[in-house]
Design goal:
It is built from 15 helices and no strands. The protein is mostly helical. The chain folds into 2 domains: 141 residues; 102 residues, no CATH class. The termini are far apart. Pfam families: DUF2232.
Length: 308
Amino acid sequence: MNLRWTSVAWSIVYLLLLLSFATPFSFITIFVMLLPGVILYTTLSLRSFLVHIAVVWAVAFLLLSNPAILLLAVFFMIPVIVMGHLYKTKASAFKVVAMGTGTLLAEFLLVFLGITVIFGFNLASSIEDTLNTMTTLMENMADSGLIATELVWSPEVTQQLSNLAARMTPFTMIVCSLMLAAITHLIARPTLNSLGHAVPSFPPLRDWRLPRSLIWYYLVTVLLTLFGGPALMDGFIGTILLNLSPMLNFLFMIQAASFFFFLAYHKKWNPAIPVLLIIVMLFIPPLKIVGILDIAAPLREMITRSRR
């Protein structure tokens, strides 16, 4: 009985999230859109899950009278099934988040490819039009004395920003996919545990070790960026490097954070110290070199060996 009412409650939450797409709150609710479906898929049989989903979709369609809501629901249902299935099979947290991220990323790419090919959508032009609208608004505000004239973008800056944003689309898709999957897991795991479904958690951050191959990717990226020349950087390879570089920097910062917690654990420091170091690293990005060294050199072995 408790499970039945819990399922009904999560179905209502799912319905409200779908309805939120018709409101400005969709920019917030989208980050938890996968959550109700994952909970329902993991806790229910396939037949019961399909019944709940069908009812929610039907009610949402009747209330909004917009078929686009069903397309969005189908889009998010695919990663829901992937992550829910992995939860049922007791897969590791890393695998759940990785597969959820990969599924979302594949969908984003397919949708982007579809609207580009079928509708002739040009992302760079669309971004430039948006920036031009903002520039016009800023010019009007500058003429009225509301903002300084120096803050108004020139047409050249607008075009450069639009081209950069368009080239950074893969990175944006990866970040969005990772955020959706990670937020879903962070909320779903304790929720499922409270419902009697044991879900593996991430290992302690201090134990995270990223593959050493990242060092080679980083070296290649740096060398090509420094010596590739304008022709290379403006082409396809340059676009790859433009997206790969921030991803590698992010991973190295994660590894540095892991090392900070590892060091604090073995040195028995106050737990607040690694947190403060991470905050400092956010303002001083070159500190990510700690993560690079942690991957490339046996720093942890040296620390544990010195304690013996």
